[in-house]
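Please annotate the following for my students:
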Amino acid sequence: MPRGTLEVILISAKDLHDSDFFKKMDPYVILTYRTQEHRSSVAKGAGSKAHWNESFLFTVSDSVSELNLRLMDKDSLTNDDFLGQTKINLETVFAEGTIPETAYNVVKEQEYCGELKVALTFNSERSSEVDYGKDNFS
């Protein structure tokens, strides 16, 4: 069972399906791991290409191995629009410690609607071991 800290670096999005007719979209991302949730800043006027370069930390303490990223469009007069989502399997980052910048497909109603670029790092919690064989009193 992995224990430690998961760092998610939200880099950018591209090819997003534009949900606004009169102006460019203002996309943001809601990142969810188990019951922990973070929200990126809003990329005002970014349209179908957004850049964040933001880092988020999650505490990993059980065998849940999926990160959910929901892409939204911030609206001022109506509810925010759901643009799509991607789910990232974390087994590889738990095993290898890091996944470099990777593009993940954003899907809405089983259709491709853009991609998110994300980098992942897992810092495993190591148990503190005391070496009782050494003279620690000198």
Observations:
- The first strand starts at residue 4 and ends at 14.
- Strands lie at 4-14, 27-33, 36-39, 50-60, 66-73, 81-89, 98-108, 111-124.
- The mean pLDDT is 89.
- The chain is about 5% helix and 55% strand.
